[in-house]
UniProtKB/TrEMBL annotation, chains A, B:
Lineage of the species this protein comes from: Bacteria, Pseudomonadati, Pseudomonadota, Alphaproteobacteria, Sphingomonadales
Cofactor(s) needed: Mn(2+); Mg(2+)
Reactions catalysed according to its record: (2R,3S)-3-isopropylmalate + NAD(+) = 4-methyl-2-oxopentanoate + CO2 + NADH
Protein name as catalogued: 3-isopropylmalate dehydrogenase
Keywords, ordered alphabetically: Amino-acid biosynthesis, Branched-chain amino acid biosynthesis, Cytoplasm, Leucine biosynthesis, Magnesium, Manganese, Metal-binding, NAD, Oxidoreductase
Site (Important for catalysis): residue numbering on this chain: Y136, K186
Residues of the Isopropylmalate dehydrogenase-like domain: 3-345
Binding, Mg(2+): D218, D242, D246
Domain of life: Bacteria
Any one of the GO BP annotations: L-leucine biosynthetic process
UniProt GO cellular component terms: cytosol
Cofactor mode of binding and number, as noted: Binds 1 Mg(2+) or Mn(2+) ion per subunit.
Family stated for the protein in its record: Belongs to the isocitrate and isopropylmalate dehydrogenases family. LeuB type 1 subfamily.
Quaternary structure and partners: Homodimer.
Organism: Stakelama tenebrarum
Length: 349, 349
């Protein structure tokens, strides 16, 4: 029996993962669930944002449904004890190197975007972000120079195999979609980007149907405002991906609707699934959170880790159905509660 | 007599700097001009994007008016010979460490933005980007690992004095504007950002009237789409500034209107002034380019390097006047030519 680890985390994390669990349970998939604390919740309970029991559960599981981490009460802690370290730790420890972030305008949701409706309507992209390399995990530190000044440094680096595996994901995905791949880098300045570009170019002949384009990251940030509809599949490094995927999500507007997956294999392996929104401590515990992103993350979990495309499509259709039926949580300008949205999605299953 | 170096560069650079020069000449400031090639134009003429004569002129000058660099014919050259290296070289050689990028919606220009008019209308920020540190100029290279894999690296680093001087510019500018300063970093991941944040915090007590806020770069990229009007003055490092300043410009929409300054002192010293748009090779030589950004860059030049605020304001008013009079180059949906826009601005002086 497949085991799904549920790591609810902080703020609205527990509320939204609870709804996602309800949906998974309703599908009667014959899976089991186990929960463990993570982030600020784990720090308060066990003195560490990623306790070893939680990490063990994540490793044992077939898939991980993650809520959100982030807790203002932890702001003054040493960086290594802060809630966000839990998600970095899970990525690194479990080797989840590919982050998939679909950003798609749902029909009728254009009002949520600050972009003009005709611009927003065309958004339908997937950002494929490398997740365990780059400046995130390179050697970092602080030193004092000979003349007593403080200096901080972080090493940015990529090896060709790290780039190749993420590029393959991008090409494969483009092949199944609109056959356009945009690789984002800063090759006019960075040596890592130059290597990135070389490796991506070396793969291109294997995918003759895919139109490959390279774009500098500053231009990509512009183009995502000017004409986000031009993007189909985007591949990029950890740091640029962090920035661009959040920007793309905000272009869609309803960040309460957007799921993500962090994988180490395209299918049939453990992965971590989480809404792209944060822990939103200001509305935690009030039943105001939108559970759609968590529920759609559960759909990605079924698709990628449990190889159950049918169930994934069922969930996605149910979410679309509930939205088409007019159910709206406060983030979408409505007054329905977290569980009312859950109810509507369950009813539409 | 003050010497203004004009480095027209590639593509539309010569056309737009020619109009800016006309405006400067019309003001009868008693300055002299000297021109030199840069970028692709210099590569074709002298084999290097930043020939020593050009660099010498830049060093001798009291201020530099720069057009744009970028030339598709140079795409296959080694990175160190490409046109963009000229601008990096000038920044580094002349020590221009502070890049000021105002992004302001001009009245009546909301249509140019892809953001909804009510969102776009509120944009009025200055991005202050550090320009000679960060991963741009750290040690970089490629090596082969023991098992024969290619690996690329770039060292990101900041020293406290580099951060302090840019933060001071930010605080001073916020003090003169709406008294809000947002410092953008990635302190939850990067040691350089942690140092950045510490140094900025240390300065805060010197500016009790300025409200200081720290924002992660991924969140900043989101907020610039969600509510760009919340930004007054933004300080950030070289890499994040590259991305965010382009994003902010595109939020305004009319990138043909936006100037920039690269400085090493707030006033009374040499600086480099350039439109934020690129060389736009596709429309070069056709009289279609919008010279407003170059002309507004000349205004910044007068303000910062020649200490002539009056003349700067005069130019800014003339540009606003020409636009209010309905003159529009093709980038703004009109049919007026580069020189017609120049004429209108001269007439409004
Ligand atoms: C919390 C933080 C370390 C993390 C990141 O930068 O990767 C977050 O922004 C994300 O994108 O998941
Ligand atoms: C051309 C390039 C090296 C440069 C940079 O990255 O700084 C440009 O994008 C800019 O912002 O002026």
């Amino acid at each position: 029996m497949a085991l799904i680890a549920i790591l609810p985390g902080d703020g609205i994390g527990p509320e939204v993962t609870a709804q996602a669990r309800r949906v998974l349970e309703a599908l009667d998939l014959g899976v089991s669930f186990e929960e463990a604390p993570v982030g600020g919740a784990a720090y308060h309970a066990a003195g560490h944002p990623l306790p070893s029991e939680t990490l063990d559960l994540a490793k044992r599981a077939d898939a991980i449904l993650f809520g959100a981490v982030g807790d203002p009460a932890c702001d003054t802690l040493d960086r290594h004890l802060r809630p966000e370290q839990a998600i970095l730790g899970l990525r690194k420890e479990l080797g989840f190197w590919a982050n998939l972030r679909p950003a798609k305008m749902m029909p009728g949701m254009e009002d949520a975007s600050t972009l003009r409706p005709e611009i927003a309507r065309a958004i339908d992209m997937v950002i494929v972000r490398e997740l365990v390399g780059d400046v995130y995990f390179g050697e970092k530190g602080r030193r004092e120079t000979a003349d007593g000044r403080r200096e901080g440094h972080d090493l940015m680096s990529y090896a060709e195999d790290e780039v190749r595996r993420i590029a393959v994901v991008g090409f494969e995905m483009a092949q199944r979609r609109r056959k356009s791949l945009i690789s984002v880098d800063k090759a006019n300045v960075l040596e890592t980007s130059q290597l990135w570009r070389d490796v991506v170019n070396e793969l291109a002949p294997d995918y003759p149907e895919v139109a490959l384009q390279h774009m500098y990251v500053d231009n990509a940030a512009m183009q995502m405002v000017r004409n986000p509809g031009q993007f189909d599949v985007v591949i990029t490094g950890n740091l640029f991906g962090d920035i661009l995927s959040d920007q793309a999500s905000m272009c869609v507007g309803s960040i309460g609707l957007l799921p993500s997956a962090s994988l180490r294999a395209w299918a049939g392996d453990n992965g971590l699934y989480e809404p792209i929104h944060g822990s939103a401590p200001d509305i935690a515990g009030q039943g105001k959170a939108n559970p759609c992103a968590a529920i759609l993350s559960a759909a990605m979990l079924l698709r990628h880790s449990l190889d159950n495309e049918d169930a994934a499509l069922k969930i996605e259709a149910a979410v679309a159905g509930a939205l088409a039926g007019g159910v709206r949580t406060p983030d979408m300008g409505g007054a329905d509660s977290t569980s009312q949205m859950g109810d509507a999605i369950l009813a539409a299953l």
